[in-house]
Amino acid sequence: QGLLLESGGGSVQSGGSLRLSCAASGLAAGTNCMGWFRQYPGQEREGVAVIDRDGKTDYSDPVKGRFTISQDIANNTLYLQMDSLKPEDTAMYYCAADNYARVCNYYTIAYSYWGQGTQVAVSS
After folding, report:
1. Three-state SS for 25?
2. What pLDDT, in 10s, does the model give residues 93-105?
3. Rounded CA separation 94/45 (Å)
4. Contact of 108 with 45, CB cutoff 8 Å
5. Which residues contact 63 (CB under 8 A, 6 or more apart)?
């Protein structure tokens, strides 16, 4: 049974930076994709960034050029470096894992494991 534990959320001013971490355990050996998602109150979860086991990444348009997803496979940890933060980045952020897709995607149903979420608040 997989377990994901996020950390690193908090409150920053517009233009600031935060780094989210996601410690993973119990993931199957063949899983390919991990990702970060965010959710605004009353809305569905949306994809932010994904990465495969080879390090290939993809970003949603709103965060391209500002966020960087990375992984430390040896330590089973996923990261999201968030720079040039904007008030519209304020949301609950979740890491996700256990997606076997050959090309990583943002379909929430494709990810079996989710973290508990970490809140990010950006003030103007």
Report:
1. strand
2. 999 998 888 899 9
3. 9
4. yes
5. 48, 49, 82, 89
